[in-house]
Amino acid sequence: xxxxxxxxxxxxxxxxxxxxxxxxxxxxxxxxxxxxxxxxxxxxxxxxxxxxxxxxxxxxxxxxxxxxxxxxxxxxxxxxxxxxxxxxxxxxxxxxxxxxxxxxxxxxxxxxxxxxxxxxxxxxxxxxxxxxxxxxxxxxxxxxxxxxxxxxxxxxxxxxxxxxxxxxxxxxxxxxxxxxxxxxxxxxxxxxxxxxxxxxxxxxxxxxxxxxxxxxxxxxxxxxxxxxxxxxxxxxxxxxxxxxxxxxxxxxxxxxxxxxxxxxxxxxxxxxxxxxxxxxxxxxxxxxxxxxxxxxxxxxxxxxxxxxxxxxxxxxxxxxxxxxxxxxxxxxxxxx
Length: 336
Known about the structure:
Elements: H1 2-26, H2 31-57, H3 62-96, H4 103-126, H5 134-153, H6 158-180, H7 182-188, H8 194-230, H9 238-245, H10 247-261, H11 264-271, H12 275-308, H13 314-335
Helix pairs in contact: 1-13, 2-3, 2-6, 3-4, 3-5, 3-6, 3-10, 3-11, 4-5, 6-8, 6-9, 6-10, 7-8, 8-9, 8-12, 9-12, 10-12, 11-12
């Protein structure tokens, strides 16, 4: 009987710990935190859309408009993906402070909020020229990105969504700052003729991606640790730290996939302008995808290593005690 009680008592902390993890994952983020993330994401999106519209409308020839549109598409898609998720999370947080939404209703509200962001984001692009289908395709792709972001926010892991969105905004800011110093850094990397400049640009891209992944992982880690205090000490499961750290890279990868699929006609049309433009599109597309994968991997590893340093061996000791207790109970029954 003693062995049975010991085994049961050993199992209880595991169940309790699982319940604590589940509770921590479902606790909504603070309204102020989510509002700040949403504001930053919307500002990022507005900047990308304004830059795209200004660049496109400033071109003289139709060919240059097409190539400028193709260059601007991936950045706008990535920004809208984050904005859709952040705004949807803000709406859910505001509603959640008054009532608890079921899974289906939560998903519907989040998707609707993302769709609204997408429609508003598509207007500045579509109104550039309503005669053809080019800008309608771009606007539709942008709207789809925001809707997907909103749908992702519908999953009941608010702290993870918030951490991933904050990390994505942080990566954008870091990339903007690093690009300000791109010219002197390229010189330090030996940029000169065409071949050396290409190699220097490649190393700069890899370095920027690695630093962005490091920043994404750390931002996600600190956001989730901050949420732990809000959840009365309960923490999310460690794989979710990795998911949040990989969020910024996932945004880039998903944005690139959307650009290649939903916006494929735009990219194909830009590639037909000239052989050089087609080659440039292929190189940039591959570089964006590779950078996104680097940010994803480095961000996930950074967040995991950061949270791993805080884990104690208590859980392992607990599991070992449970195994020993189970073995004792088995031996007891055998002797009986």
